[in-house]
Design a protein that fits this description.
259 residues, alpha/beta, Rossmann fold, 2 domains, 5-stranded parallel beta sheet, 41% helix, 14% strand, globular, ATP binding
Length: 259
Amino acid sequence: MTTSATKRLKKAARIILIGAPGVGKGTQTERLLARFPQLAAISSGDLLRENVRKKTALGLQAEALIQAGNLVPDTVMLDLISAELVTKGWLRPSEPTTTQSSSASPPTISSSSHSQYNRPPSIAPSASFILDGFPRTAVQAISLDRILPINFVVHLFTPPSVIISRITKRWVHAPSGRVYNTDFNPPKIAGKDDITGEPLTQRADDSIDTWKQRLRKFEDSSKALIEHYERQGSLWRVEGNSSDEISPKLFAEIERRFA
């Protein structure tokens, strides 16, 4: 699908995409960024890796936890996200706030201390973005609400049987990472990479059983998250068997709400 002319947003769109593995969240994000140039993508995973690489105060804290075999807690991830928004000029504290641990780190609006204030931080009118990778649970969403009100949550739905069928037709050229699909992006010669002619393989984790487990896990873990945003009135569900089916519907809804 080729993205048509760009559109200008008249209202700030703070977007989260929720969807099962294989549903095409990455594809939709790329298409939304091309369609609506005012949108920015903020990936919690990229922020974590960047802060670790730059050895910021938050990055050093996260790295120590990871090296000790621990998960990075929600409070640290929220502080990483708020620091990025502060750096962009999109998030401003309404009250005197917390710490600036190091001159190498941007100021943050600490998620752990924010609850003592009655008013939320101030969101800049121009702050339009897609937040990727966070929240993944209802508990994380509630914490995020205190710092950053999300106003459009998209539940991307493709039937699990369609996702599994699509995955079983996926072949990769392992050395380069090039991906093919025998239905909609087949190699020129069956079983061979277009560039090198080397054989294509299927990933070990692309087995049907593995994907059924992944889809079940997503369904279980996302139920409370979806219900949370549904209660808030910010959830919108879109269904399609492919990204090309979903994108026009998604574009139209964003234009209706924000353009």
